[in-house]
Every structure is written in structure tokens, then in C-alpha cells.
Design goal:
The complex is a heterotrimer of chains A (about 650), B (about 180) and C (about 150).
Chain A lengths: L1 H29 L2 H30 L6 H6 L6 H6 L5 H22 L5 H25 L23 H30 L5 H31 L10 H26 L3 H23 L13 H25 L14 H31 L5 E3 L1 H22 L10 H26 L4 H26 L6 H26 L1 E8 L3 E4 L2 E13 L2 E12 L2 E6 L2 E5 L6 E3 L1 E4 L3 E12 L2 E10 L2 H18 L12 H11 L1
Antiparallel strand pairs in A: 2-11, 3-4, 4-5, 5-6, 5-7, 7-8, 9-10, 10-11
Helix pairs in contact in A: 1-2, 1-6, 2-5, 2-6, 5-6, 5-7, 6-7, 6-11, 7-8, 7-10, 8-9, 8-17, 9-10, 9-12, 10-11, 12-13, 13-15, 14-15, 15-16, 16-17
Chain B lengths: L1 H4 L2 H19 L18 E4 L6 E3 L8 E6 L4 H16 L4 E6 L3 H11 L5 E5 L3 H5 L7 E5 L5 E6 L4 H15 L4
Parallel strand pairs in B: 3-4, 4-5
Antiparallel strand pairs in B: 1-2, 1-5, 3-6, 6-7
Chain C lengths: L1 H27 L4 E5 L1 H5 L9 E7 L5 E2 L5 E7 L4 E7 L11 E8 L5 E8 L11 H4 L10
Parallel strand pairs in C: 1-2, 5-7
Antiparallel strand pairs in C: 2-4, 2-6, 3-4, 4-5, 6-7
Classes of the chains: A alpha+beta (about 650), B alpha/beta (about 180), C alpha+beta (about 150).
């Protein structure tokens, strides 16, 4: 009964989405207030029914209803209730429902919180969001129905993939999807602007907080994914340049370029058509990512369903949505011209470079991700592009970007006025370099050129970011949200750089064969296999090891890595033991029984790795603080000319 | 002139991308051609699932086209394709032999009783050695063997009516159909 | 418009330079473009000597040999037509087992052995998004003879 209700709710949600898009767009085109009102109300209806569908699926999972095929394939009676709920988005169909819920949620938020927007513009935005919703509902109802019944019902479910049975499953996908899907708002704002043929840049101010919000969710979501992969996979990697990861990273790069470009468009009315293109691109990359991981077109061992019918549907959807937006862009963009100029070392210039480097990296990553597809399509062989390519094409543009970042933060609009901060910046650069060399040598015992560059850039960015709020505080001035947020976010970028440099330059990984009582040493730490025993959990049995870590004779901790075998069958699973310290992680994972009383273990020393995720959280925090700046919470939309004047004064 | 063409660049690039994707989708990567296609079907003689004293083998159905379906009770996809298999059996065009792979004998028998039995006979391969000879690395998989004993086609994954119609029937027709 | 043009050209030049540098540098890494060969292709001499590539297939039953107590393991990878012996030192992925599909990453020696520096089990679930291919392509359960 409940699954049927869920199915019915999806159909209702589709109908509401159709009403939403028709009346939203037609109403705006014809200036009909009643129609536009209907479009707005339909958003609530759509959200309610998607929520009902989601609740129905969640209920089926919690109640262990194995007569629903999706539940039977992804859950089982021994699965703890916590994971039974999270299993809702553990596979293709359910995760689509999560997508739809996020989209409906964002649509509702935009409708509710944008009373200051011009009515026709808002209606268009709602209409466009409705079109996207229609696409996802249709996709689910025609090819990927989570409520399909299994007749006769299974006595026992197959189980949720043990790799997913972890706390991170409950938060990573929802947050990630809120980010991905959230870019649809910027997309809709951009398309509405193009539809209306607007020549001003008020839309940039309206779009900024929404874009920041989506972007910060995506930042956290990606960081969570990386952290989860690190401790769950058992092998200590935190980024693999896998197509699925790239599918979330590319929208993030576009989104980062977008939030910077929006600032210029809002403040100075420049880069209008470029910013519009970016707004369309960010969400397009989200959709592209969805296509890549669900269509089977890329042989990633990590992708979802390899069903060509689904692939064709998404491709068609992609073509309509992105093709439509790009066609709009081709039509309207030539009319958007701006005449304002700016000097070489003005803020606009630095944003230009920021965008240029981010987009260059993005395009190269896209190329690498799609290259195997091109090669295969043209029958040129089966290739895969390895991490060294991606590392190179990402890191090379990042070096000049980070360098310019430290300077650009201090630039003013329109004019080159960096002279006042020049000496202080040089001081920070010199200090950063000195610390990088000295600390590097002291802590890690060696000086490596790449590491020195990395640490110097990290400290440079961190120091430069702190300069601004500190200067204001010292002068007795208040630090507005936008400025503080920017400083924290950029500081976070420095912290991420610090972490990446540390772990990539100085990590140590070794596979060893140990018998009980043996010790292996890496990075100055002694790992002793003290004991091996059997253990059991709610739905698994395991072999557990005691690995005692000491340094210079003093015991630090005992790690307890496990090798688990889940009751539902399948391959063994590794649970790593990790010890977190202020400057490094220590990591031990069990391999297998080698015979003669020895077991293989993988031991790792990972310096500064936590700073990667800490930095990412800081970036998101900064974004959040900036987004909550009072500017965006003003009730009335001031005229663009006044906007600019006001901005000049406060800067 | 160039200025006016520039906004068309994004959509042009996008169109090119779509073309590649369409080509890519046609080349369904799960349809990896088995090296067995065109070669004689690997011979085997195993215990019948329902009676260990009886032998079931690749020679039983020789001289006519036949199907070998690899399945197991722990395989979710096998569950999904079962109704399609029953329909194929009902059509009676070509006999289907089952290869029960790495499974529990009593569970497998219960499955057939409960869900229906589309097979003329079922070979019991608990250790999976015959499956490896046939290049099986997952379930379900379905093979079409010609009247001359050569492997004509291999379906990796769930059998659907669509796949049956699109991939198997044309090959059967070329063989001269079935009795 | 001219200062604007000049600026755009400057940016374009810088970015192109950076991009070109990145691509050129990545071509210097031979390991970046990894070609995949089946055991049959390796036997036919299609795979490069001394250069890193990937070979994949099923792990032949009974071929896995490990010197007792050592990290070194030998096994044979086959596509049911031809086989390639593989040598690997280190931890094998959890999904590695006889009869299962794997991809090994390494190089071919003159003796015909493939020395792997990485072994990936097919459907190696080393990333979060779940494998629905499990429904289409279920690996066998952990019980039975081993």
C-alpha cells in the first residue's frame, strides 16, 4: 500500500511540476498575474508530493518491506535501522528521488525567499526549475521507479553494500546533492535573464546568495566524500581522479569561478555574458556528471547502473536543458556589452585571472575525463587516463592562481592601488618561504622543491588572507560579513594547500608481513602487531588486530584494524585503524593471512592530511558568512545605478 | 564577424559532445564480446540438480540450437529475469538448460518449485569450474549455442524480452528457427 | 575597445601558456595514458615491452601461489583463450579471488612474466557510489572451496 502511495505521489509531483513550469513561463510571457501565482503555488504542491514519495520509500526501508524490489536489493533484516534509512539513497533509483527532493526543496526556498525579485523574473525562474523537475520525475517514472514491486516478495533482502554501511552515508549524499542540485538555481536565474533579454546586472546581485549556498554545500559534500574514502577504503587514498569524483569536482570549479565573476558583474556591470555562461555551465556540469555516472558510457568501476535505456534518457534530457540554455545564450549574448574599463592591477583583473585559471583547469580535467570515451567511440582502443595527468593539469594552473590570490584580495575596484600593501605582502611572502624551508627541514628532515613551493604558497595565502580583517580591527573598523567571509574562505584555501602539500610530499606507505610480536617502522613510528583475535558485529564477523604504535620508545596508541565478513555474504571488507594527531595521521589496515603465522598489513604515515578537510570546511564557512551579509537580506531591490554608487562608497 | 560567431561556440562544442555520447552509448561496454563466440561450446558433464545419479551435459541438446542460462539463488538479477525465462520456455522455440552456479542444491530446487522451472534440465556446478570454462564471471549470463555446437551469442546480465527479440531471435532465424 | 582587447589577449596568452605547459608535462609521463590489453593481445605481441600498461581478465582457478609468510604472490590472468602469469608484491584488494575479474597495472618482462605494481579487482568498490552492476553481474558468495 505504502509503495503505491509513493508511486502515486511521484505522479502527482510530476503533474505539479508541469503546472509549475507551464504557468510560470507562460504567465510571465503574457504578464498574467493569476497564472504566475498558480506557478508559485504549484511549487509547494510539488515539494509536498516529492516529500511524500520520499517518506514512503523511507518507510518501506525501515519496515523492511522486501516486496519492493529496490528495498530488497539494498537492505536486509539484519541491517541496523540507521542504515536502513540511509539506504534509501544507496543506489540509483533512490538517489534520483533524493535529487528530486533537493530540487523541489531549492525551488520552494527560492519561491519563498525572493519576494524582492521582480514578479515576472521570479516566475520565469520558477518555470525553468519546473522544467528540470519534470525531467527527473519522468526519468524516474519511465526508467527508474524506486517503487517497483518484487513478486513474489523476497524473504530476505540482498543487503546494503557493506562499504556504504557507515555514518558518512547518512550525510555525504544529501549534502553533495544539495550542492549539485543547488546550482540549478543559478542556472534558472541565468536562463531567466537571457529569456528576458535583460541588459542590466541586477540579476547578479539576486543570484549571488543562492550560488554561494549551493557552492558551500558542494564544498562540504566533496570534502565529506574524500574523508569517507580515506578511512573507509582501507587504503588511505583521499582523491583518485575517478570519473565519479571529477563529476562533482568540475561543477565545483565552475561554481568557484562563478561566485567570483558574479561579484564583478554585480559591482561593476562587467563580464555579463561570461557570468551567464558560467551560471549555465555549473549546472550543466552537474547534469553531465549525472549522465556520466549513470549511463554506462564511461567504464568506471564506480559508476551506477549500466543501462543504455537510462543513458539515452539522460542524454536526451541533457540535450534539451543544456542545449536550450546555450541556444538562449547564443541568441542574447551579443547584445550584452559593457563599456567600463579597469586598470591592470585592479580587482577585476584578478578575478579575470582567477576565472581563466579555474576554467583552464576545468577544461583539462573535462578532457581527461572524456578522453577514454572519445578514444573508444573512434575505435582507437581502450584507454584510461591516470592520476598523473590530472595532478599535472590541475596543479600547474593552481600555482599562478594561488600566487595571484594573495595579491588580488587587496586590490580595489577599477584602479591599480596595490602600492600601500606592497611591502607588507612582500614581507609575508618572505616569511612564508622562510618558514616553509625551515619547518620543512626540521619536521620532515628534508627539503623538497615541490614541497617548498607548496608550503610557501600555502603560508602566503594564509598570511595574506588574515591581513585584511586584522588591518580593519586594528583601525577600529567593523569587519562586514562579506569581508570576513572572504578572508576565512581564502584562508581555508591556504590550509587545504598546506594539507595537500604535506601529505603528497611526505607521506610514507608500506606493505609489510608481520607475525604477532613483530614490529615495522615507518616515518620514525614503530608499529607492533601485538595480537590477533576474532570479533563480531551486528551483521558481520571479523578478525581484529591490535597494532601498538610507539615513537622513541613511548607508546602512543593501539589501533584496532579489522577484516570483516558480512553475514549476507560477499567479499571481505577492510576497516582501517587510524590515529589522528595534530600534524599527522597514522594508519594501519589488515591485508590477509599469509600463512606461517604472518599477516600482511598496510601501514601509512600521512602528514597534515586532516588539514585538507579542515581547510575545505573553512572555505565553506567563509562562503556561508559572506552569504549571510546584510546586503543580501535587504528587502527592496535598489536600482543598478544606486547599487554601484553605494558599492563604491563602502569599498 | 568573429565577434558575432563567438557566442555560438559553446553550443557548437556541446553538440559535438552529444554526438560522441550517442556513439558511446551504442557501444554498451557491458556487451564485451566473449572470446568464445564462434568457437565450439566447452564440453561438460555435471550432476543434475534434482538427481545426483543423473548426468546433465553439453552433449544432451546437440544437433539443434539451445540456450545455457547461468543462475543462482543469491543473484538478484536472476530473480528479475526469471519471468522472461519462463516466457521463452513457454514459446517452446528453443530448449534452455540451466547451469546452477556456486549455489546450495536445496535452495536452488526450492527456487524452481516456487518460481517455476523454465529449464529442460539443470546442471549443478557448485565449484564453478564449468562456469570458468565458459568464461562466466557473474550471474546471470545466457549463451546461445548453434546446432553445430558453436557458441553464437552471450548475454551478460538480465535477459529481457527486448534483448531476446533484438539479439537472439535474429540468430535463431538464421539457424532455421527451431522445431 | 583596444585596451580591452589587449587585456583579453594577455589573459588568453597566459592561460594558453599554462595549459600547454601542463599538457606537455603530462605527455612526458608515459603512465598517463594507460592502454588496456587482453591476455590474447599480450600473447600476440601487441602489448609494449618495458612500458607500463594494463592487462585484465579472470584469475585462473588454482593459479594463486603465495610463498608462505611472504608478501609476494603469483597468479595467472586469462581471457579463456590465453593466459599471462603475474607477479605482485603487496596487499591484494578485498575483491580479489580466483575466478574473479581483475586488472593488473605494470609491465611485461622479457621472460613473459607481468610484474604488477597495482592490482584492481573488477567492480572494486573503492568508491562510494554503489555498484548496481551487482544486480546484473553478481559475484559469487564467499563460501565454497578455497
Amino acid at each position: 500500500m505504502i509503495p503505491e502511495i509513493g508511486h502515486f505521489a511521484l505522479v502527482m509531483a510530476l503533474l505539479f511540476a508541469m503546472v509549475q513550469s507551464f504557468f510560470g513561463l507562460a504567465g510571465a510571457a503574457r504578464g498574467q498575474a493569476a497564472w504566475m501565482g498558480a506557478g508559485r503555488s504549484a511549487v509547494t504542491g510539488q515539494f509536498v508530493f516529492v516529500a511524500i514519495a520520499f517518506a514512503a520509500l523511507a518507510w518501506s526501508f525501515i519496515q523492511k518491506d522486501f516486496s519492493v524490489l529496490y528495498v530488497a536489493t539494498n537492505s536486509n533484516s539484519e541491517l541496523p535501522v540507521f542504515f536502513r534509512f540511509a539506504a534509501v539513497w544507496g543506489a540509483h533509483e533512490g538517489s534520483l528521488l533524493l535529487w528530486a527532493l533537493c530540487l523541489a526543496g531549492w525551488s520552494l526556498a527560492v519561491t519563498a525567499l525572493s519576494s524582492s525579485l521582480q514578479v515576472r523574473f521570479r516566475s520565469r525562474v520558477i518555470g525553468i526549475l519546473g522544467l528540470i523537475s519534470i525531467g527527473f520525475m519522468l526519468f524516474m517514472l519511465t526508467t527508474s521507479n524506486p517503487f517497483d514491486r518484487l513478486v513474489p516478495a523476497a524473504l530476505e533482502g540482498k543487503d546494503l553494500n557493506p562499504l556504504l554501511q557507515d555514518f558518512a552515508l547518512t550525510i555525504h549524499p544529501p549534502i553533495l546533492y544539495l550542492g549539485y542540485v543547488g546550482f540549478s538555481v543559478a542556472f534558472a536565474f541565468g536562463c531567466a535573464t537571457l529569456l528576458e533579454g535583460r541588459l542590466d546586472s541586477a540579476w547578479a546581485r539576486w543570484t549571488r546568495p543562492w550560488t554561494l549556498a549551493a557552492w558551500l554545500f558542494l564544498t562540504v559534500g566533496i570534502a565529506l566524500g574524500s574523508w569517507w574514502a580515506y578511512y573507509e577504503l582501507g587504503w588511505g587514498g583521499w582523491w583518485f581522479w575517478d570519473p565519479v569524483e571529477n563529476a562533482s569536482f568540475m561543477p565545483w570549479l565552475a561554481g568557484t569561478a562563478l561566485i567570483h565573476s558574479l561579484a564583478v558583474t554585480e559591482k561593476r556591470g562587467l563580464f555579463k555574458s561570461w557570468t551567464l555562461l558560467l551560471a549555465v555551465s555549473a549546472f550543466s556540469l552537474s547534469l553531465l556528471g549525472t549522465f556520466l555516472v549513470r549511463s554506462g558510457v564511461l567504464v568506471s568501476v564506480h559508476a551506477f547502473a549500466t543501462d543504455p535505456a537510462r543513458g539515452l534518457f539522460i542524454l536526451a534530457f541533457l540535450t534539451v536543458v543544456i542545449g536550450g540554455a546555450l541556444a538562449l545564450y547564443a541568441w542574447r549574448a551579443p547584445q550584452l556589452k559593457s563599456n567600463a574599463g579597469f586598470e591592470l592591477a585592479a580587482r577585476e583583473s584578478f578575478v579575470l585571472f582567477n576565472n581563466a585559471f579555474l576554467v583552464a583547469a576545468l577544461c583539462l580535467i573535462l578532457l581527461g575525463t572524456l578522453y577514454p570515451l572519445f578514444m573508444d567511440a573512434m575505435e582507437l582502443g581502450k584507454v584510461s587516463v591516470g592520476p598523473p595527468y590530472f595532478n599535472m593539469v590541475f596543479l600547474v594552473p593552481m600555482v599562478p592562481l594561488l600566487l595571484l590570490l594573495g595579491i588580488g584580495m587587496h586590490a580595489v575596484w577599477k584602479k591599480s592601488r596595490l602600492q600601500p600593501v606592497r611591502s607588507r605582502l612582500l614581507g609575508i611572502a618572505a616569511a612564508g618561504f622562510a618558514i616553509a624551508v625551515i619547518a620543512g627541514a626540521a619536521v620532515y628532515g628534508e627539503i623538497r622543491p615541490m614541497a617548498t613551493i607548496g608550503f610557501t604558497l600555502a603560508l602566503w595565502v594564509m598570511g595574506s588572507s588574515l591581513m585584511i580583517p586584522l588591518a580593519r580591527l586594528r583601525a577600529g573598523q567593523a569587519v562586514p560579513g562579506a569581508v570576513l567571509g572572504m578572508a576565512i574562505a581564502h584562508f581555508g584555501v591556504g590550509v587545504v594547500t598546506l594539507g595537500i602539500t604535506g601529505v603528497q610530499s611526505f607521506k610514507i606507505e608500506e606493505d609489510v608481513a608481520l607475525a604477532v610480536g613483530d614490529t615495522a617502522t615507518i616515518g620514525g613510528y614503530d608499529f607492533r602487531l601485538a595480537a590477533l583475535r576474532d570479533a563480531r558485529g551486528p551483521n558481520y564477523v571479523a578478525v581484529e588486530a591490535d597494532v601498538v604504535i610507539s615513537k622513541d620508545g613511548a607508546e602512543i596508541t593501539t589501533l584496532r584494524p579489522q577484516k570483516r565478513l558480512y553475514n549476507s555474504g560477499g567479499n571481505p571488507m577492510t576497516e582501517a585503524g587510524i590515529q589522528v594527531g595534530p600534524g599527522r595521521d597514522l594508519f594501519a589496515a589488515l591485508g590477509e593471512d599469509l600463512g606461517q603465522g604472518r599477516w600482511s598489513l598496510r601501514l601509512q604515515y600521512k602528514p597534515l592530511i586532516r588539514y585538507i578537510w579542515l581547510g575545505a570546511l573553512l572555505i565553506a564557512l567563509g562562503g556561508g558568512i559572506a552569504g549571510l551579509d546584510r546586503r543580501y537580506r535587504r528587502a527592496t531591490a535598489a536600482a543598478p545605478g544606486l547599487e554601484r554608487a553605494a558599492a563604491e562608497v563602502t569599498r | 564577424m568573429k565577434k558575432n560567431l563567438r557566442p555560438l561556440l559553446p553550443i557548437a562544442l556541446f553538440a559535438g559532445l552529444i554526438v560522441f555520447f550517442i556513439i558511446g552509448l551504442q557501444k554498451d561496454p557491458s556487451r564485451i564480446d566473449s572470446p568464445l563466440i564462434g568457437k565450439p561450446a566447452p564440453a561438460f558433464a555435471l550432476e543434475a540438480l534434482d538427481n545426483p545419479a543423473v548426468q546433465v551435459g553439453s552433449g544432451d541438446l546437440a544437433g539443434r540450437p539451445w540456450l545455457l542460462n547461468v543462475w543462482a539463488t543469491w543473484c538478484g538479477g536472476c530473480r528479475q529475469e526469471h519471468t522472461t525465462l519462463l516466457e521463452i520456455a513457454r514459446e517452446g522455440r528453443v530448449p534452455m538448460m540451466g547451469l546452477n552456479w556456486r549455489d546450495d542444491r536445496s535452495l536452488a530446487l526450492q527456487w524452481l518449485v516456487k518460481l517455476g522451472n523454465p529449464y529442460v534440465s539443470v546442471a549443478y556446478d557448485p565449484e564453478g569450474r564449468t562456469a570458468i570454462d565458459w568464461g562466466v564471471y557473474g550471474a546471470p549470463e545466457t549463451f546461445l549455442i548453434g546446432a553445430d555446437g558453436k557458441v553464437l551469442h552471450k548475454q551478460i546480465g538480465i535477459m529481457t524480452a527486448e534483448i531476446w527479440r533484438r539479439d537472439f531471435l535474429p540468430l535463431l532465424a538464421a539457424q532455421g528457427g527451431g522445431p | 575597445m583596444t585596451p580591452r582587447r589587449k587585456r583579453m589577449l594577455a589573459v588568453l596568452a597566459v592561460v594558453s601558456g599554462v595549459g600547454a605547459a601542463a599538457i606537455l608535462a603530462s605527455f612526458a609521463f608515459e603512465e598517463n595514458l594507460l592502454y588496456f590489453y587482453s591476455p590474447t593481445q599480450v600473447h600476440a605481441g601487441e602489448a609494449p615491452d618495458g612500458r607500463t600498461f594494463r592487462v585484465g581478465g579472470l584469475v585462473t582457478s588454482g593459479s594463486v601461489q603465495r610463498a608462505e609468510g611472504s608478501l609476494e604472490v603469483r597468479f595467472v590472468v586469462t581471457d579463456n583463450l590465453e593466459s599471462v602469469p603475474v607477479r605482485y608484491t603487496g596487499l591484494l584488494p578485498d575483491l580479489f579471488r580466483e575466478g574473479q575479474g581483475i586488472i593488473a597495472h605494470g609491465r611485461l618482462t622479457e621472460s613473459g612474466d607481468f610484474i604488477a605494481d597495482e592490482v584492481l579487482a573488477k567492480h572494486d568498490e573503492n568508491y562510494m557510489p554503489p555498484e548496481v552492476a551487482a544486480t546484473l553481474h553478481t559475484p559469487a558468495p564467499a563460501r565454497t572451496t578455497q
